[in-house]
Amino acid sequence: MTPSKPDLRIETPQLAEAEAFDDATAAVARLEELYDGAIEFLCRNFRAAMASGSADCRYRAFYPEIRITTTSFAKVDSRLSFGHVSEPGTFAATITRPDLFRNYLRQQIGLLLENHGVPVVIGISDTPMPVHFAVANETDMTVPQEGAGDFILRDVFDVPDLSTTNDDIVNGTYQIPADGTAPLAPFTAQRVDYSLARLSHYTATDPVHFQNHVLFTNYQFYVSEFEAFARDMLADPDSGYTSFVVTGNAEITAPDQELPRTFKMPQMPAYHLKRADGSGITLVNIGVGPSNAKTATDHIAVLRPHAWIMVGHCAGLRASQSLGDFVLAHAYLREDKVLDDDLPVWVPVPALAEIQIALEQAVATETQLEGYDLKRVMRTGTVASLDNRNWELRDTSGPVQRLSQSRAVALDMESATIAANGFRFRVPYGTLLCVSDKPLHGELKLPGMASDFYKTQVSRHLLIGIRAMERLRKMPLERIHSRKLRSFDETAFL
């Protein structure tokens, strides 16, 4: 192994200088040009260094960035919660994978140009691109662990830096640097790249397949129903759905195509019923527990979905509830603990009217009930999320008292986490649960009961979630992305 050489000369790619653009499509094209140039430079030199086992210089490329400077308080449509900066100044965002985010970037840049009447500047940032992320989409290359190569990796290439990969912007704790440049987007390029890599690992599907509407569940039973629904949609030429993707990135476009058997399931398998414009539906089986719920939403958030909804099972807490009843959450008792450091428990997590209405209307449609009769099968109320699956085995006097004081009607382990992270990341969220047991009333989740319950309820429950998403898909973007999710000091980009 060659000795460390911190004084190596630095080579960088020769790319276009910063340029002002007043057209969003052209601006995004330049972002792609700069990004592709950086990727090609790093991959080419990494491949050469690995082949030779040595390097006589340091190779460094930088993420592209968007920058805008305004000098006046522009008057914008106050109904719009995004697409404009709040005050005069300079705002910037580093960008990764502009090919993946092409439509998003065109939309967000277009709004900036329209609302402020000044150009955006596209150029090279001062943020180095880690070689791990540069080679992520190269099937013939992987970055070896430190010590496995013939040279010291960090002497020759930049590696991920967790000190700058964080959620300071979305958490509201970001400190404006000395030059006064404020953030333009909720995530930096490094944070996005980190999550894209994690998504591929945890879900066993490429992030490119994720759709703008995401359903979360905590049971595998829903996956089979989702596949059956997907095949029905592919059989209907008027459905608008174009393909179905499962773990391992296996994709079908016809209803009778076979899917390969998955022998090793990922931690949180994802399934994607796609539409050409990305407005389809993704289902993620996050399994059980708030840690998984946080992990999934932490990473999916960088894709900027238009909505995510939890459609899982819960414990009913009221004697009047029956197995199979639905619970529409309008408040959350957060005892999951996994987000307390990022979003203090004193921060309210409000119900979003747009999501609530879509879910209630979907339940009414599928059950053929409405108005007062709908209360026979659906309760609206507080959902409590705990971090202890076997809370019943401890002294329950404390938990039961808090559940009663909070007016909770249902208990699970994921819903409050998903809602809280939706609030934190400005992703519209909602929860529709199905009662699978009533531990406070002697109805435990036992094998026989579960079997009958699953046969009759899973299909209808999943279909309600899908129908709600289809309603939300028809909603104007400025309506679904509610102002109540935005603070008074927000990034311009969604």
Q: How is this structure best described in words?
A:
The chain has two domains: 175 residues, AMP nucleoside phosphorylase, N-terminal domain (amp nucleosidase, domain 1, 2-Layer Sandwich); 281 residues, Rossmann fold, CATH 3.40.50. The protein is α/β, with parallel strands linked by helices and 494 residues long. The protein has a five-stranded mixed sheet with strand order 2-6-4-5-7. The protein contains 13 helices and 18 strands. Helix 10 links the parallel strand 16 and strand 17. The relative contact order is 0.12. The longest helix has 29 residues. Helix 7 crosses helix 12. The mean pLDDT is 89. 33% of the residues lie in helices and 20% in strands.
Keywords:
amp nucleosidase, domain 1; Rossmann fold; single chain; five-stranded mixed beta barrel; 494 residues; AMN_phosphorylase; EC 3.2.2.4; 2 domains; AMP nucleosidase activity; hydrolase; globular; five-stranded mixed beta sheet; Nucleoside_phosphorylase_sf; 33% helix; alpha/beta
User: Can you list the strand order of the major beta sheet?
Assistant: 2-6-4-5-7
The biggest sheet amounts to:
5 strands, mixed
> What name goes with the CATH superfamily of the largest domain?
Nucleoside phosphorylase domain
Task: Estimate the helix proportion, in percent.
Answer: 25-40%
The CATH topology annotation of the largest domain reads as Rossmann fold
CATH class identity of the largest domain:
Alpha Beta
| Overall average pLDDT | 89
Report Rg: 24 Å
Distance between the termini: 46 Å
Shape by Cα distribution? globular
Which stretches of 5+ consecutive residues score pLDDT under 50? none
EC number: 3.2.2.4
Function: Catalyzes the hydrolysis of the N-glycosidic bond of AMP to form adenine and ribose 5-phosphate. Involved in regulation of AMP concentrations.
GO molecular function: AMP nucleosidase activity
Family: Belongs to the AMP nucleosidase family.
